[in-house]
Design goal:
mainly alpha
Length: 63
Amino acid sequence: MGSTSDKISGKANEIAGKTKQAVGKAADDRDMQARGAVQEAKGKGQVATDKIKDKLKGAIDRL
């Protein structure tokens, strides 16, 4: 269910979002900071979803 590419995509979004936030803060660009926060949250959601998929798959496999 969960895949390595899903995990990588989620982590990549988290890192890119954090980077955008840092650049936005350094450049005093609140819009970029906000876009970074959204992208980071998206990445965290992807990672969480993947973890849930893995747990469900494990539960199903045990049945």
